[in-house]
Write the structure tokens for this entry.
Amino acid sequence: MSDKNTHSLSVLVGINITMRRKMKDWTQAELAEKLAIGTDSLSRIERGVVAPRFPRLEEFAKALECSVADLFKTSDELLREKLVDYQASTIDTATEIKLLAERIAILSKQINKN
């Protein structure tokens, strides 16, 4: 795998960790404490500067209440899931706005990395 592909995966995982952390309304310090890592380490992971090893990915997934595979999902996959959830249930306007804001944040990070 090329360095560019590895970097892209690191960024993708970092974006997903950041998004899921923010969905729980946790600060970096709060998540870092739950994982017993430093906030500087968490910041590097969220920015995609470094990629967490597999055991650490499992810890992230457990803390964020998702699967490890969820941490590798693209924004398109996440949006499709959200749309299925949206269609399966009625959500209020505030939740709909939050979902759109999350999508904008994901796309913005992807655009800034390219």
